[in-house]
What does this fold into?
Amino acid sequence: MGTSMGTETTGDDRFTTIAEFDAEPEQRAPLLKTLTDEIERWVRDRPGFVTARVLEDSENASVVVYTEWNGRDDWESFRRDPEHAVLCDKLRQLGIGETFDGRPHDVHRVIETVPAKPWP
It folds into this structure.
């Protein structure tokens, strides 16, 4: 018996944002902590929130936050939440930037690995 790996390609209606923050080495740890703390504290409980990935680029001192939402309306609602302004204030205090909005993207296609299946 063997296994076979393949890929499955599907469309996706989710709404995605990608926010990139330039950070000096001494800013990186506080930035990562602030972002992950806030996402875990309240962002993940917002209606329509699906997932967030916080990525650290060790080569050029940037941090990227990739979020997925069920739709653009859910993301817009997140941006209007009073906690969003609190998060933006925390970023300003770190000297990072003015906003956590990110650039919006519509998902064109999601390609995932298909689970291995035994050979007949």
